[in-house]
Amino acid sequence: xxxxxxxPDAQPSIETAAETAARLNGTxxxxxxxxxxxxxxxxxxxxxxxxxxxxxxxxQARAKSRVSRDRARIGMANGEDKFLPVRERxxxxxxARDYVDARFNVGELMIPVMFLVILLSTIPAIxxxxxxxxxxxxxVAIVDCVVLGFIVTKKVEAKFGADKVxxxxxxxxxxxxxxxxxxxxxxxxxxxxxxx
Length: 196
Prior knowledge:
Elements: H1 17-25, H2 38-45, H3 54-77, H4 91-102, H5 110-120, H6 127-160, H7 169-176
Helix pairs in contact: 4-6, 4-7, 5-6, 6-7
């Protein structure tokens, strides 16, 4: 007769007292129910393609869509990365946004100045001066955006390293030309509160 190999880590094949009591009481230690047949499982998973009450289903779908849109709108206004468009995401873009929002930009006055020039153009005596002033303002705003682009690029390079810098000049220029209340994502810093 061959000898059985001895395995010191093997579990004993002797039934414990709790297992014996459970077996004698008739309660099973397993799953306690028979395995469902394939037909039963498929019947449980069936869903109608068309709901019984289409109006109610459409209302529920609209309500769910409205909630998700509102959440995305609030998330975008607050600057949450997962709700932002790809061009707005990342720590470098956040840094650039905060820098632009902390600074007073000449381009913020673009819309009010244009509105003022339109009003002044109704007065023939000063209409030409209004157009000249508007062009002078455009030049000053463009120079301000170019300077801002160079400043923010240098700051981003210093903070994140020159080898991993994204292009932010056009991004900060477009943000600087918008009125502060109309910017999206909304400004997260106050004026003068420059990012570190």
